[in-house]
Write a structure and sequence with these properties.
By secondary structure, the chain is mostly beta strands. It is built from two helices and twelve strands.
Length: 193
């Protein structure tokens, strides 16, 4: 059973998965909040374009590479983004980032996942937002983090995967921020490294 993470919580991925992991997927899902309408009739909603990104950092906490909707694969090939969802339509994951833990370069110490509203709408326009991490091979969900903290922020630093004593761990960060892309969040990411 998946761990429902709380802000600031850290877990061992292998312990939660019940063994060694080779590939994990970070899924991001959201729905557009409906507004207005009388007794639910005539309610309106507009598309909200949330974007999942991951920034790769080395031992010196310098960014090495980034995977996002404008670069769907890391230069080393270890991380792949499945594509940009601009509406949040549908059930389940709207965007996914797949990480092959076996091939992440040895100099990469941490992977920081972010979500941004590229179109600038704040999180009060979304509901049922989450990020989840699952074993790509088995489909078993390892951890889930509820992002539906509605408010005036347009971004969030979701989580960090990092190497510690030879194993991968996860830290649920959950810090709200403002910015259209991961680049706007870099000064806020650094303290979490």
């Amino acid at each position: 059973m998946a761990v429902n993470l709380q802000k600031g919580q850290k877990i061992s991925l292998e312990k939660e998965a019940g063994g060694a992991l080779s590939r994990v997927t970070m899924g991001l899902g959201w729905d557009v909040a409906k507004s207005g309408g009388f007794f639910g009739f005539g309610a309106k909603s507009q598309a909200v374009d949330l974007d999942a990104s991951v920034v790769m950092f080395d031992e010196a906490n310098r960014p090495v590479d980034v995977v996002w909707f404008r670069q769907l694969k890391s230069r080393d090939g270890s991380i792949t983004h499945t594509g940009d969802n601009r509406t949040g339509a549908g059930d389940g994951d709207d965007e996914q980032i797949i990480v092959d833990l076996r091939t992440v370069p040895a100099n990469v110490k941490s992977l920081v996942f972010t979500v941004n509203s590229f179109t600038g709408q704040n999180f009060s326009t979304v509901q049922n937002a989450f990020c989840r991490l699952f074993d790509t091979n088995s489909g078993k969900e390892i951890a889930r983090y509820d992002l539906s903290v509605q408010g005036s922020h347009t971004a969030q630093i979701m989580a960090k995967l990092y190497r510690h004593n030879g194993e991968w761990k996860m830290h649920a960060i959950g810090d709200n921020a403002t910015g259209r892309t991961f680049d706007d969040l870099m000064p806020l990411i650094v303290p979490h490294l």
